Amino acid sequence: MEQENKKKQQLEDYTVEDRDKALTTNQGLKMSEDEFSLKVGDRGPTIMEDFHFREKMTHFDHERIPERVVHARGTAAHGYFESYGDASDITMAKFLSEKGKQTPVFVRFSTVAGSRGSADSVRDARGFATKFYTEEGNYDLVGNNIPVFFIQDAIKFPDFVHAVKPEPHNEIPQAQSAHDTFWDFVANNQEAAHMVMWHMSDRSIPRSYRMMEGFGVNTYRFVNEDGVAHFVKLHWKPVLGVHSFVWDEAQKIAGKDPDFHRRDLYDAIEQGNYPEYELAVQLIPEEQEFAFDFDILDPTKIWPEEQVPLRKLGKMTLNRNVDNFFAETEQVAFHVGHVVPGIDFSNDPLLQGRLFSYTDTQLIRLGGPNFHEIPINKPVCPFHNNQRDGYNRQTINRGQVSYHKNSLQNNTPNPVPRANGGYEHYQEKVDGRKIRARSQGFEDHFSQARLFWNSMTPIEKEHITKAFCFEVGKVQSMDVRKQVVEMVAHISHDLAKTLGEKVGVTATIETIPEETETKQSPAVSMYTNPIRFVETKKVAVIIQKGEEAKPLIEALEAAGIVVEIVSDRQGTLGDVISDHTFDTASPVLYDGLIVATKFEDALTQRKVETFIDEVYNHYKAIGYTDEDVIQVAYSKAPGVVKGLEAFIDALATDRHFDREYAIG
């Protein structure tokens, strides 16, 4: 009800704002008619002088801009970042300079491979891009929900994207990596091995953008006022923890609600359940660049948190939805080269290529070099330079001077020295021959893939194994399947043997030495130290009469749980309102279920049992009020409980993977 009132008030606010405005053309000409084109007689042809028709139709014909080549499917929100304290010992960035300092932000989440019309819940990496509107200019932290990437050098990015996109001869499959060209690329570019392990894990099917980590992926530099530099990796840690779908659930959600993630984020913000993420950094002093058994500039490697601990710098809260999806979410332009003093770059070859590619992309998508003047991209601080003209120019520059140096305008705009906040690149001595090659430190493709596998809990290993079998099983080429199995053998012989058996290939994995390294990094596991919570989780309550459920609903909502009522009909049921019938609701869209009634009608009761079965198969919490409303076999299973307190505890656990015969 509160949400309905809020939406009603918003509508009234918009209506008041627009109520007395006259309809005009884009030139401000008031129009007396907008229903009919100008014709010769009421049944005659439309005539060319109808400038209003031409303006309206031309604008409509040009409303679509090219979608992003990658990260096309996304959603976004506004918020703010608040610094935990003074980080001036590591960076001169002012937005990190004092406790409590707040900076506006805009965040866009996205899938990588699919087109704008694809589903949210597909197996894919997710983009996590943040624009900080700082007093020193915009800073863009452009990352993913996985800390490593498929390739080491940006020159291979077009190859990777071509391989994972729908195959060119038939434009199939959409938003999936389970096809020949992707796995052929992986098998023949084995630097992707580590990323593929993350991709086959539950990290690639997140439950919500609110429950998803973000990583800057690349190695950057932090520089303080004294010129002391640290190599740095940046992380977003969701306050709710990291949670995911199970694969069967993710596939069904793609059909039941392809907008699941964007709806989840939008609804949470509208309900006041603001997503929160802590910004943390890993720091390596320059003198320790070569102190590790991995190359810190290699984007296919993590810095294990056990070796390079996290330092938390602040918290981001997303508290406002966009007003217009196109104007904000579609037109926002991120760029890893948008930095502020105190943040600089490393020689990470993937990062170096991104510094070129992002500008090039925005030029084609947003119609020219003035995309920074679009409101969502515009800095909150003043900006002045000698750039002029071009498509979509908004600034009206005064004066006759558009060059530097000059005397006619007293040499303005003036360069700003570093001491007054001017940006200076970190002075790094570089010496070497021009060469197309990679550092020897980049040649190890499997040790961290094994580290990831060794760090997984048994249920995570089971899910990774199933994901490999599904994905490689969709590959038509038996030769590609064989290559993948042999590549996986460098990570785990057990995984390779199971995969080979399931996808029907005989691979010569015995010739590949089996590694005995048992090093682990518990921080990369989702289930080793899970965060328990119930706030903002969505629970379906099956009822028949309102009076039997009102106290239950009130208690759930008091715990911060979002409740939806499901029954055999919608509308008023005594003291409560039914949100859904069994035809309009789907069990895959909920985090838990409470069954408070048994229906006498056999068909309706069958729908209830099907609903329960789906929730059971996906290992979610199930509560019931009396034994007669649930089958005895279910009532004895883990996470299937009687009573409110027991249900809330089961819901906090999230998934109950020790259920027998669940097929999620």
Automatic annotation (TrEMBL):
Annotated signal sequence range: none
Residue ranges the record marks as coiled coil: none
Classification via PANTHER family: CATALASE (PTHR42821), CATALASE-B (PTHR42821:SF1)
GO biological process, one term: response to oxidative stress
Molecular function via GO: catalase activity; heme binding; metal ion binding
Catalytic activity: 2 H2O2 = O2 + 2 H2O
Required co-factors: heme
Active site per database record: H71, N144
Every Catalase core domain range: 24-412
Disordered, as annotated region: 1-20
Gene3D superfamilies in the record: 1.20.1370.20, 3.40.50.880, Catalase core domain
Record's protein name: Catalase
